[in-house]
User: Fold this.
Amino acid sequence: MEGISPMAHRNTPPPANGYDALLNNDVYVTKIGGDNAGKLASNANIVHRRAQNMRTQILAVSAIRSSHPSFSDMTHPFVIEKELATNGKRKPGFNTTSHLIAIARALARNDRPAAEDMAGRISAFTRSIVDGEVIQDGLMEDRERTRARLQGCITRTIDDPDDPHSLQSLISNAHPAHIRHVGEDWLLTEGNHSQSITGIGERLAQSVTRTYFEGRNVPSAELDNGDEQTIYSMMWQGDVSGARGQLCENLRQSLQRTLSSRRVLIAGGYAPPLGTERGYSDKTGALIAHVVHQLGQQIVYLIEKAKPIMSADPNNVHGTRVIPNMTPFLAKELFGNARGADAGALHPEALDMLAEDDIPIVVLNAEEEPAPHNTTLIQAFNPEPNGVEIVHSRSVPFALQIVTGKMIGQTGFEEDIARWFAEHNVSIQHIATSEGSISYTFDNGKESAATVAALRQHVHDRYGVNGEEVIQAVDHLAVVYCLGNDMRTPGQAEKATFALHGAGVNIRMITQGLNQSVMAFLVDKDDASRAVQALHDIFITLPDGVYRILMDETRLRIAGAVTALRQQM
Assistant:
């Protein structure tokens, strides 16, 4: 980073903003995911610049993928079929991890030809990515040599039938009975040896990234997970906590060997037992940060995106602004994919891991020169009441309303319904209750018609009521979130409903807890973009003082009109 020199002191005060956090810490841990994992030239430029400023960097690299439509034709039909079933639409580009999971599924049903076809597609996609990066990199001194070495990485990891660790070798020798599906992970387990099929993408990305960096004269070393077989053995014995502790110990030893001699360490974003969990690459990066923190290093965790955290999606909303500071609580409400606004950036559990160690998190565009105005710092602080700072929306599959006082008044009714949803793998998102009804929204449950039918049958069988009459389902909805670090400012709900009324948006449901950081409005999906813009205009664009003056004048007019009407009565 230009203009930032290495730290000369310790025990510095908490950073005031993202720029301070970058300035005050020696070690940068960065999870490189999404399309960024394939931007090899850009990553080399960024890492080289930071290394010149004496920063030690640890990269946790996810599997290479691309959202560019030019790669869509490479996607295997099995992957497209799964995307359509899960999301109702296919995603553009090519996703390596999705193909590895599809390969594991194919091997489990003994469809070796399909698995080989998909492995070939992964190889072809990755070769295309690295070739494009090498050709366009004006700072690459020996393109042909680097290109050959990169192609060799891909051959060894994917195509070489003689390499016992390659994907092709795994496909050739795997028996369907040895394919194991554990949480989010797919593994080949034979005797006492286990190998993650899912994690091959991260292993390939780690090797490709290091080889590319060497071609750019950026010295680096691989950060390995140590003896993974011991970790797997502990997992199969049910000792997940012990397996996690063993991974931490392995990482500690690996870091102690390499931190003193290398300024750039490259880790794969997969590590057992985290690979079985959602958001495993985020959690791997957070766990590495935890171990570095335990070693006494001054550390900051970086999230590299096109923009820092904004007041709304700048691609869809006019007049957005950078959010300079966020508490971990607000960040979790924004990033959370269950009851939160699902804005991505970092898995909520990884966020919790970092917050426990009070590790500062900086969200930034790494290709821009960092400054206080273009970075977001996520770290605990005591915010002043400042009202709504962020407006975001997400679609929801469907909502349900149960209308009958007969059931709702029974002791244990709500617990029974919640248990029923859990047993059917449907996660409740928001709840609103009244004397005679209870309403739910959900963050998953694509088979909404089947879910509703089954629930109607359940209430008929258990409570003796007509499920068709008492359970009403609504789909094509969205939840609009108003979020702030501290919204303990009078009039926030008034401003929100005023904005939505002015935009002609019907509010179907409102939820707000005591945390003073979130208000959520359920609206028709077709109204969501209009609702977000209206809320952003009233909370972010219009100065609060101007709003108060206008509303004070309006209230006086309303009071005068009411007084006049009363006098006529």
Observations:
- The chain has three domains: 1-25+304-381, 27-297, 390-556.
